[in-house]
């Protein structure tokens, strides 16, 4: 894993997302966020790692854009249309839309309660 500012940004985003996992937020498919050279976030069920493993869905996006999507500051559709977000499989992405929205909502809620 890298060291320096990229690692701390990656870890901060992983921690933010991890705060939203669990309870009713579970994934029945694996998701990998390829953070455009700044690392990876891999979600398998209720576990988050920084592994670059094959996943059912790979979303290619910058750390800043992923956080903006998660906070509701950037729409997913707008990000896809502007090529700020790339999706490996639109069908899988559609099937994961509800758990991803729930993850982002719970992550934001957890961050607000700190």
Q: Summarize model confidence as the mean pLDDT.
A: 90
Radius of gyration: 13 Å
Which strand order do you get reading across the main beta sheet?
3-2-1-4-5
CATH fold type: Nonspecific Lipid-transfer Protein, Chain A
CATH class: Alpha Beta
Give the helices and strands as they follow along the chain: HEEEEHHEHH
Name the CATH homologous superfamily: SCP2 sterol-binding domain
Please report the number of helical segments: 5
Can you walk through the features of this model?
There is one protein chain. This protein is of the alpha+beta class. It has a single domain (5-107), classed as Nonspecific Lipid-transfer Protein, Chain A (2-Layer Sandwich). The protein is built from five helices and five strands. It has helices spanning 5-18, 63-70, 76-81, 90-95, 97-112; strands at 31-34, 40-44, 47-49, 57-61, 85-87. The chain has a five-stranded mixed beta sheet with strand order 3-2-1-4-5. Strand 2 and strand 3 (47-49) form a beta hairpin. The chain is globular, with a radius of gyration of 13 Å. The mean pLDDT is 90.
How is the secondary structure organized here?
Elements (H helix, E strand, L loop, with lengths): L4 H14 L12 E4 L5 E5 L2 E3 L7 E5 L1 H8 L5 H6 L3 E3 L2 H6 L1 H16 L2
Parallel strand pairs: 1-4
Antiparallel strand pairs: 1-2, 2-3, 4-5
């Amino acid at each position: 894993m890298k060291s320096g500012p990229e690692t701390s940004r990656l870890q901060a985003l992983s921690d933010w997302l991890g705060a939203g996992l669990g309870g009713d937020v579970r994934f029945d498919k694996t998701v990998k966020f390829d953070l455009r050279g700044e690392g990876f976030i891999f979600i398998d069920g209720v576990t988050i790692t920084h592994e670059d493993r094959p996943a059912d869905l790979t979303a290619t996006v910058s750390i800043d854009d992923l956080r903006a999507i998660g906070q509701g500051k950037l729409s997913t559709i707008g990000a896809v249309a502007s090529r700020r977000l790339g999706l490996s499989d639109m069908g899988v992405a559609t099937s994961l839309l509800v758990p991803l929205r729930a993850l982002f909502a719970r992550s934001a809620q957890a961050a607000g309660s700190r």
